[in-house]
Amino acid sequence: MERMLAAEDGDVRDSIHVGEVPVPEVGPDEVLVAVMASAINYNTVWSALFRPVPTFAFLKRFAEEGGWAERHLQPFHVIGSDAAGVVVRTGVAVRRWKVGDHVVASPSWVDDQDPAAQADAALAEHPRAWGYETNFGGLAQFALTKANQLLPKPPHLTWEEAAANSLCAVTAYRMLVSPRGAQMKQGDVVLVWGGAGGLGSYGVQFVRNGGGIPIAVVSSDRKERILRELGCDVVLRRDRLGLEGLSEKETGRALGGAIREAVGEDPHIVFDYVGRETFPLSVYLARRGGSVVTCGSSTGYRHEFDNRYLWMRVKRIIGSHGANWQESWEANRLIGLGAIVPALSRVYPLERTADATREVQLGDHVGKVGVLCLAEREGLGIDDPELRERVGEERLGLFRAESKASDTREYA
C-alpha cells in the first residue's frame, strides 16, 4: 500500500516520501477508508518541517495512553487531515457506517467516552488533529478514522472536490457560525484575512451565506477576481492602499479608513488564522465590543499587540480549534445542499504530494490543493448529477478555472 511519509529532514520536498507500509488493524470504534482523494493543509507543511513540534512527539505522547493508541507510534508518520473515500472495514462497535459507504473525514480525533467531549470535542482531555497528531492520516491509499469523524460524502461532488472541504470548511464554520465561535448574525461586517486561501475562502462563503458582509484584503488581481466571483462584498488591495513602509498603527488606520469608506462601519468580527503578521491589526480593527476569532498562526504563534485596544474597547479574542462532530455535520450539510462550494484549485497525484505541499508552503495557491490517491483520474465519484447541474459547473469549478487561467507553474 502506498502512503505519504514524512522523515525528519526539514524542507517539505525532502522530508515527504511515498512508500509501502502495513495497513493498520481496525479498532472497535474505528473505520478503514479506501481514500479516493485527499488535500493539503498547513499542518501538512508543519509536519514536514517538524515545527513548531516534531509530529513524532505527538505520536509518542499518544502511544503512551496504551491499548489501541500504541499502534500510532511507528518509524513513519502517515500524514494528512482531509480525505474522501469508501468504507472498506468497520470495527465491531461501529453502527452508523457500513462497507461501501461514500464518506468524507472530518479532522477531529476524539475519544467518545471522554465526559468533556460530550459537551464539546474541543474540551476533551486529549483532542487530536487526525493525520497530524495521529498516524494513518488521509494522504494515503487507506486511512484509519474514528467512526465519529466521518460524514456522508456530498453526492454531487467529485472525490477530489469532496476531499478539499472538510478541515477548512468545518474549522471556518465553528469560528463564525457556532455558538462556540463568533456567533455571526445577519448584517455583521466580517474582515477575513487570507480570504483567497483555504480557510479564508470558506470563511468568506459562510459569511456571505449567513447574511453577513465579508471583507477581504489581498495583493493580486488573481485573488481579487476569485473573491469577487465568490461573492465577497468588499475586496481591498493591500498593494494599492500605500501601506508599504507604514508603522503598525498607521497601517491599522489606513485599513480601518478603507473599510469604513467601503461599508460605513468597523468590523463586528475579524477572522484571523494568519497569526503574527495580522493579529495586532485584528485587535485594532475590530469595532468596540467586537470579536477577533483565531484558529491558528501560519506566520508565527507569538503575537504582540496593544492590549489597550482590547480592554478599553471591550473587545473579545475567541480561540477556536477544529470542530466537533455536530458542527462538522452542519457544515457538511451546507456543502451537500450546494450552499458552500469547494475551494479546490489544483490537483496532484499522490506521488507528487511533496510538490503539492511545497506550493502551499510558498503560498502560491488559491483555495485548496488536492491530491488523488486511489481515484484513477479527476472527475470521478459524482452520485447526483442532477444536483450538480443545479449548483452549476461554473460555480463548482470557480477556483479551478482561475488557477488554470493564471498559473502554469510546475514544481520540479
Q: What would the keywords be for this entry?
A:
14 helices; 412 residues; 7-stranded mixed beta sheet; Rossmann fold; alpha/beta; 32% helix
Account of the protein in words:
It is a single chain. The chain is an alpha/beta fold and 412 residues long. It has two domains: 2-169 and 323-406, Quinone Oxidoreductase, Chain A, domain 1 (Alpha-Beta Complex); 182-319, Rossmann fold. The protein is built from 14 helices and 17 strands. The strands form four sheets. Strands 3, 4, 5, 8, 9, 16 and 17 form a seven-stranded mixed β-sheet that branches. It has a six-stranded parallel β-sheet with strand order 12-11-10-13-14-15, sandwiched between helices. Helix 4 (159-176) crosses helix 5. The chain starts with a strand and ends in a 6-residue tail after the last helix. Mean pLDDT is 93; it is low at 4-9.
Oligomer: single chain
Averaged pLDDT, please?
Answer: 93
Question: What name does CATH use for the topology of the largest domain?
Answer: Quinone Oxidoreductase, Chain A, domain 1
- The CATH superfamily of the largest domain turns out to be Medium-chain alcohol dehydrogenases, catalytic domain
Q: Count every beta strand, where a strand is a DSSP E run of 2 or more residues.
A: 17
Which radius of gyration do the C-alpha atoms yield?
A: 20 Å
Number of alpha- plus pi-helical segments: 14
For the termini, the CA-CA separation is 25 Å
CATH class (first level) name of the largest domain: Alpha Beta
Task: Indicate how many domains the architecture comprises.
Answer: 2
CATH architecture of the largest domain: Alpha-Beta Complex
